[in-house]
Amino acid sequence: MSGPASADHDDRNGRIVSAVRVARAYEQLAALLRERITSGDLRVGERLPSESSLAEQAGVSRSTVREALRTLQEAGLIERASPRVMVVASRTDDPVFRELRHALRRRNVTFHHLHEALVTLEPELARFAAMRADAGDIAALREALAAQERHLDHFKEWSRLDVEFHLAIAEVSANPALIIAREPITQLLLPTLHRFMDNRSMTEHATRYHRRIVGEIEAGDPDTAASVTRRHINDFRTAWEKRGLDFHQEILELDSFGHSHLD
User: Fold this and answer.
1) Is 45 left (phi over 0), alpha (psi -120 to 50) or beta?
2) Residue 133: helix, strand or coil by DSSP?
3) Which of 92, 175, 189, 251 is exposed most, by the fewest CB atoms within 10 A?
């Protein structure tokens, strides 16, 4: 049959790609600056370049720079020292951070609680990411993977990149409520990673999981992405216990910089 029916058939079955959305410039700039801050290249109290300087360096408009800085300021990573000067903020001075530590102390949060939170949130974030990721998102996750692969022998840096990787998946989920719910877990996760991620076999094993998760997100398979992520989180628990660490270890016995008071 010719005519409209054939055109409909071609429209349904002839398409081989979906529309590609390029990540917004301010998001890319914010991610680059966030990396410089979290890696320690930009230290607490250090002044950021001016808006015009950042715009020139990044090849973007000043309005793009302002939007990127606003994003980082809302995240508590930078603060305004004067009307024209932005500096790297101290997270330990952040009222939200202090309140988190008070809540941890009041409620005696343990590794067991952290594992339950992760196994509840992470698979669903991966599921939504697989449903919503575009080409720019996949490229960003691939870059995060490549950074981890370059630091397999640098365990503290790998751990920081691990946290960044999972936060990136949360961002790709495009669910603001879940992203906000996930953010404080970062303060719990880094000390636990620093506590026991201390050999290459462990970083390689975890990075292989990350590669599989990204593959399923790229394939657009929500169920498998969630399933692989759940296995990854449960493997995290198994690794903790195999090291002879207490499943009911209180998180506050590990300080926020990754040094155990038990050492």
Assistant:
1) left
2) coil
3) 92
